[in-house]
Amino acid sequence: MSAAEMTGTIESSAEILADRVGRLVPMLADRAAEFDAADGFVADNYALLKEAGLIEAGVPQELGGMGAGVRDLAEMLRLLAHGCSSTALAFSMHTHQVAIPAWRWRHQNVAAVEPLLRRVAKDRIILLSSGGSDWIGGSGEAVKVEGGYRISGRKVFSSGSPAGDLLVTGAILRDGADDKVIHFAVPMKAPEVTVLDNWRALGMRGTGSNDIVIDGLFVPDAQVAFQRKAGEWHPVFQIIATIAFPLIYAAYLGVAEHARDIAIGIATQKPPSEDLLHCAGRMETALRAARLAHGWMIDTVERNAPSAESVNDVMTGRALLAEHAIRTVELAMELAGGAGFQRKHGLERLFRDIQGARFHPLQAGPQARYAGAMALGLPVSQIF
């Protein structure tokens, strides 16, 4: 609890989050290299997030949470990345899975999401996203049976999987040319659910982004949240894309900022030269571009009008942020010189971690085609 909370002074959610995260960052930083070296999931850090009350940060106050909006949640994730990239990225998956139903409850009066949000606030459960494996095309198989569906599939890149309580996912209901995707939540403790230990990656090694195997899980009809056409944008996915990616990419912005800070610390110990100034200036310019792109993404969310247009705006921002965040870290390595190549400074780890910004939807090809189709007034419903 912060000093202001103890004295009864009213603080905004942003101030409370900044205070709590600020006290966590040094602890996260102390163990980041250890998790990276061992390919170990950041389980201890999740315990800290729970103790700090960050699990329920995005739940509306009326439902027992802190009521933080997307801007404040993005700031939380950005700051967490200054301590541990993997913790920030993995936690962004839970954070956006809370922020989306919170937005729907607040702006669309969707009462069906209320029990989930109350449970996050009360029990501090961790929500998982099956991410890119369950994008617009869907994955896995749903077979209709009496009273519900029998689900099988393999969900890859499920960040935070060792800590998860519910996996928010979907499966394809085959029907020839008219395939559907049904969406539902999977209890991670169900006997039909197995988390593999197979996350071995270039960077973001502590995210626990293992594959999750679902083998014959029964999902009752009543637990299907919604159904959509496979391989085509649906209004709910326009909400998901608009809200999720400014949160996910807040973590990558934090990685770039952290790399910049380390590089500046090293560079200030060197004699100034024209080359040093030039490199530092290019790094600062790239980071400013990444920050501007992220600000654009947040502004898009705050229009509160998810649509094909908001998806285009967010994904354009995502592309620009990824490009300039990666460039920032490259230049940080160059500015640090040989010191950046040594593990003890942490830059080489951040160089590996930032590469993950390339791989979330919409990746470079689909994003460019989507933006081009929007500019030319052509359909985008099947570009993903």
**What kind of sheet is the major sheet?**
8 strands, mixed
CATH architecture assignment of the largest domain: Up-down Bundle
Q: What's the helical proportion of residues?
A: 40-55%
The percentage of residues in β strands lies in 5-15%
- CATH class descriptor of the largest domain: Mainly Alpha
Query: What is the average of the pLDDT values?
Result: 96
**What string gives the helices and strands in order?**
HHHHHHEEEEEEEEHHHHH
Strands, count: 8
Class computed from helices, strands and strand pairing: alpha+beta
What overall form do the CA principal axes indicate?
globular
Give the radius of gyration.
21 Å
By CATH, the topology of the largest domain is Butyryl-CoA Dehydrogenase, subunit A, domain 3
Spans of at least 5 consecutive residues with low confidence: 2-9
CATH superfamily of the largest domain, by name, is Butyryl-CoA Dehydrogenase, subunit A, domain 3
Tell me the span between the first and last alpha carbons.
43 Å
Q: Count the helices. How many?
A: 11
The total tally of domains equals 3
InterPro entries: Acyl-CoA_Oxase/DH_mid-dom (IPR006091), Acyl-CoA_Oxase/DH_mid-dom_sf (IPR046373), AcylCo_DH-like_C (IPR036250), AcylCo_DH/oxidase_C (IPR009075), AcylCoA_DH/ox_N (IPR013786), AcylCoA_DH/ox_N_sf (IPR037069), AcylCoA_DH/oxidase_NM_dom_sf (IPR009100)
Organism: Plastoroseomonas hellenica
Protein name: Acyl-CoA/acyl-ACP dehydrogenase
Cofactor: FAD
